[in-house]
Write a structure and sequence with these properties.
Blueprint lengths: L9 H16 L13 H7 L1 H11 L4 H10 L4 H12 L17 E6 L32 H14 L12 H7 L36 H9 L3 H12 L8 E15 L6 E20 L6 E11 L3 H20 L8 H5 L4 H9 L6 H17 L5
Antiparallel strand pairs: 1-2, 2-3, 3-4
Helix pairs in contact: 2-4, 3-4, 3-5, 4-5, 8-10, 9-10
């Protein structure tokens, strides 16, 4: 596709940026009480928005994600674009070993598969059980009423002694032989890639067929709405993954890195994660083998349960499609993985706003010529 070079327009482009900035700050005109949004305010009061940008930006930096939200006026796609662009300028120093999510410091943990689970259900912070009604009292919420909420909760919250970690629900099913056993990777020859070695989607192109790790990595930073739409198509009949949430976890996962002197793994921090494991219809692991439940997995940065559940459903669907051949769009790795990245999708849609004078002029010329040849008036 060809584009034409444009001369001029510099003042208009500068003016467009200026009016965007003006709209961000115009509330301050004649309103001395107006203050710019603080990064900490965005972090804590719009935390789900920040979590979406962290996940879709593909880098765990909540402060810069909040900055991107402020800069983009709340546009999550623009914010993720800015955060991902910043990430591309950072050097890569090292990589963590595979992290054990059973060590998560949980703030929420539920299972739809069992009423009672080892360690118990922990509802945690969620609007799932509240009425979806507008709280009109928040329109004129005073600073005193705002702070009173935290004081009242802290005063009424009983002290609970939570364990450091909780067992995985799937471990009990696997011990009973109802799930396929975890794979034991064989030793690899030099330069050989194994399924247990993670595919780096930031440095390697997706050349199909791709390993499962590439699919999971792509979906982990995919746009939430895109994942939900394709997973919903599977749930609504264009597929046969009807999952049960074995366990949904939200918590802080310790990040381990080798010590520069001793080489021993040491905890350097933690990241907020959402993890979902779903159990789907049973199938034989091999011809003539005993049937077991199939499993789908989803995990992403931040607190985003819809994304993790959608990812787990699509993981199961893609596994089925890779094994038996895709029977619907949600089982086609090429269809799913090339259409769920919000930054890619936004970029392609937005590029149509760029000048297409040459190509459209060519279309006009061809249409006029065709009409003349067919006897129709130009």
């Amino acid at each position: 596709m060809s584009y034409v070079a444009i001369k001029g327009g510099g003042r208009a482009i500068t003016g467009a940026a200026a009016v965007t900035e003006f709209l961000r700050t115009e509330q301050g005109l004649g309103n001395p009480a107006a203050e710019p949004l603080e990064i900490d305010t965005i972090l804590h009061q719009l935390r789900h928005l920040v979590d979406r940008v962290v996940s879709e930006g593909g880098v765990y930096h909540p402060q810069f994600a909040a900055l991107a939200v402020k800069q983009s006026l709340g546009d999550t796609l623009e914010a993720a674009f800015a955060l991902r662009a910043w990430r591309s300028t950072r050097p890569r120093l090292t990589a963590t070993p595979p992290l054990d999510t059973s060590r998560m410091r949980l703030i929420r943990r539920i299972s739809s598969a069992f009423k009672e689970i080892p360690g118990g259900q922990m509802l945690g912070p969620t609007p799932d059980y509240a009425l979806r009604l507008l709280r009109l009292e928040l329109i004129d919420e005073s600073p005193d009423a705002f702070r009173a909420v935290a004081r009242d909760w802290l005063g009424s919250c009983p002290e609970a002694q939570l364990p450091d970690s909780f067992p995985k629900v799937l471990d009990a099913l696997r011990a009973e032989g109802l799930l396929p056993p975890l794979p034991h990777p064989r030793p690899l020859s030099p330069g050989e890639r194994g399924e247990s070695s993670a595919f780096d989607i930031t440095r390697e192109p997706l050349v199909f067929p791709v390993p499962r790790s590439a699919a999971l990595a792509t979906m982990a930073r995919a746009e939430t709405g895109s994942l939900l739409a394709i997973a919903y198509s599977n749930m609504r009949g264009y597929g046969d993954v009807h999952p049960t949430v074995a366990e949904l976890r939200v918590g802080y996962l310790p990040v381990l890195l080798p010590h520069p002197v001793t080489g021993e793994l040491a905890e350097v921090g933690e990241v907020l994660m959402t993890e979902c494991e779903v159990v789907a219809m049973y199938a034989a692991t091999e011809p003539g083998g005993k049937p077991v439940f199939t499993v789908g997995y989803g995990a992403c940065f931040g607190h985003n349960e819809v994304k993790a559940i959608s990812m787990a459903i699509l993981d199961r669907a893609l596994q089925k499609g890779m094994q038996d051949g895709p029977a619907n769009p949600s089982e086609d790795p090429e269809f799913v993985l090339l259409h769920v990245d919000g930054v890619d999708s936004m970029g392609f849609a937005s590029h149509y706003k760029m000048p297409h004078y040459v190509t459209f002029q060519s279309d006009l010329d061809r249409l006029r010529t065709t009409q003349q040849k067919s006897g129709e008036p130009a």
